[in-house]
Design brief:
- The protein contains three helices and six strands, in the order H-H-E-E-H-E-E-E-E.
- The chain has helices at about 5-20, 20-30, 55-65; strands spanning about 30-35, 50, 70-80, 85-95, 100-110, 110-125.
- Strands 2-1-6-5-4-3 form a six-stranded mixed sheet.
Length: about 130
């Protein structure tokens, strides 16, 4: 029995909260997945196109290092769940990088993310940084 989009999202978040990037990528992304990424955490200026599980694991580790592993999802909205697409918007807080508004579109193939398109902007600096 296939998972609903929300169940898949919850599984994805479970890996994130556990700090299991390898498990997340191996179990929720296809082997040839591509992530179109807007976040400014790689040496190359954003946006970036990251292809394949090995590159995804490296980039996702850098992403979580950028946020110092502390991501607290504060809201989830505009959730769309079809057999081929899961998309949503959310807000999250990071002690290291502040508050963010993000949007993600996951194009699915065989029950895993094949294409991941992300959008983001920072909505507030961390409490310990002045404007």
């Amino acid at each position: 029995m296939a998972m609903t989009g929300k169940e898949f999202f919850d599984l994805h978040i479970k890996y994130i909260l556990a700090g299991d990037v390898v498990g997340m990528v191996e179990n929720t992304y296809t082997e040839d997945a591509t992530w179109y990424n807007p976040f400014p955490f790689l040496p190359e200026p954003a946006p970036n196109v990251i292809k394949g599980r090995v590159a995804l694991i490296d980039a996702m580790n850098k992403y979580f290092d950028y946020h110092k592993g502390s991501i607290n999802v504060t809201s989830l909205y505009n959730f769309l769940d079809t057999p081929d697409v899961i998309s949503f918007q959310s807000s999250f807080d990071s002690v290291q990088t502040g508050s963010w508004i993000v949007g993600n579109c996951w194009m699915m193939r065989d029950g895993k993310i094949h294409q991941h398109i992300g959008f983001a902007h920072r909505s507030a600096l961390p409490a310990n940084q002045s404007k």
